[in-house]
């Protein structure tokens, strides 16, 4: 499934920035363990169909390639199925703070900790400086941002202490949001920043304080229904003036049209069986950074 809608929208020109991304082919993608409610290795109906998974992945790959974005590929490894979700690898630091630097995630689950070695090998080969979180802090770095601030989630898999540690590597203010539902264990599972004015999210994924904060930070709020949220509509990615999204209902389509938002719809249903979707499948390696660099403030 691949649907595209084009509109002219000068208000999102600032998002024309992604230059290079990292993806991993789904050669060994299977449901081999359970670390979130989506996964069930014992249910044949919830197992990955390899042929469909490859078709979905290639569709996403070609869509990104057609945007003029360079794609690096991570070598798939047998027995490490979640390498297909490299977005959880870490965070690329603004080069004005530290050139070619990535802060690596500390995965909570031992099943995902095996991925770190292969991420490190890729980064070293490509001459990145690697920064590691203290071992006692569990934090799968998963960030949403505007041109003016970052959003980070904590709870479920992430220790709040991790946000305090990471602040030194941010070029803009940071706001912390508390996740409270195991179905939305990463910020990107429940929330997407569509442009500087617009956020799309599922309120029940967060505590009340976080919902109130989002209400203050954004002019436009798109509230996901439970069905939209569980189909990981929030796990979309914004690249070069387009929102690449895996699940678009008639209701969402109407809202997007009203807000004049460009979108491309691509099904990745096989990957949702592991609790991931489009955003999880793409790690942004480089982008066109904005000229101003804002100093982070403690919040």
Please describe what this structure looks like:
The structure is a single chain. By secondary structure, the chain is α/β, with parallel strands linked by helices. It has one domain (13-287): L-arginine/glycine Amidinotransferase, Chain A. Helices cover 24% and strands 22% of the residues. It contains nine helices and 16 strands. The strands form five sheets. Strands 1-15-14-13 form a four-stranded mixed β-sheet, covered by helices on one side. Strands 3-2-16 form a three-stranded mixed β-sheet, covered by helices on one side. It has a three-stranded mixed β-sheet with strand order 4-5-6, covered by helices on one side. The longest helix has 17 residues, at 50-66. The radius of gyration is 18 Å and the shape is globular. The chain starts with a strand and ends in a 12-residue tail after the last strand.
Low-confidence stretches are: 6-12, 291-299
How many β-strand runs? 16
- The assembly state of the depicted protein chains is single chain
Please state how the strands of the largest beta sheet are arranged side by side.
1-15-14-13
Query: Structurally, how many domains make up the residues?
Result: 1
Q: Which structural class matches the secondary elements?
A: alpha/beta
Please state roughly what percent of the residues sit in beta strands, choosing from under 5%, 5-15%, 15-25%, 25-35%, 35-45% or over 45%. Answer: 15-25%
Shape: globular
Share of helical residues: 10-25%
Radius of gyration: 18 Å
CATH fold group: L-arginine/glycine Amidinotransferase, Chain A
H and E order: EEHEEEHHEEEHEHEEHEHEEHEHE
Broad CATH class: Alpha Beta
Count of separate DSSP helical elements? 9
Question: How many strands, what sense, and barrel or not for the largest sheet?
Answer: 4 strands, mixed
């Amino acid at each position: 499934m691949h649907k595209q809608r084009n509109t002219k929208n000068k208000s999102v020109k600032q998002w024309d920035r992604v230059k290079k991304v990292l993806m991993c082919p789904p050669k060994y993608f299977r449901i081999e363990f359970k670390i979130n409610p989506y996964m069930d290795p014992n249910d044949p109906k919830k197992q990955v169909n390899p042929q469909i998974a490859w078709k979905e992945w290639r569709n996403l790959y070609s869509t990104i390639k057609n945007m003029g974005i360079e794609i690096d590929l991570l070598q798939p490894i047998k027995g490490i199925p979640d390498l297909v979700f490299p977005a959880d690898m870490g965070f690329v630091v603004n080069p004005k703070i530290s050139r070619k630097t990535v802060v690596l995630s500390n995965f909570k689950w031992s099943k995902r900790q095996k991925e770190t070695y292969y991420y490190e090998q890729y980064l070293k080969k490509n001459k990145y400086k690697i920064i590691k979180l203290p071992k006692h802090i569990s934090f799968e770095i998963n960030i949403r941002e505007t041109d003016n601030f970052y959003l980070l989630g904590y709870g479920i898999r992430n220790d709040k202490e991790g946000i305090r540690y990471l602040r030194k590597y941010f070029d803009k203010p940071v706001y912390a949001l508390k996740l409270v539902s195991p179905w939305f264990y990463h910020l990107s599972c429940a929330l997407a920043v569509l442009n500087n004015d617009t956020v799309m999210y599922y309120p029940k994924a967060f505590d009340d304080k976080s919902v109130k904060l989002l209400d203050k930070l954004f002019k436009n709020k798109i509230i996901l229904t439970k069905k939209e949220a569980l189909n990981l509509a929030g796990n979309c990615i914004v690249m070069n003036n387009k929102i690449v999204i895996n699940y678009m209902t008639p209701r969402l389509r109407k809202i997007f049209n009203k807000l004049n938002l460009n979108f491309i719809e691509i099904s990745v249903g096989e990957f949702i069986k592991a609790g991931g979707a489009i955003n999880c499948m793409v790690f942004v390696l480089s982008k066109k950074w904005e000229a101003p660099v804002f100093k982070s403030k403690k919040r």
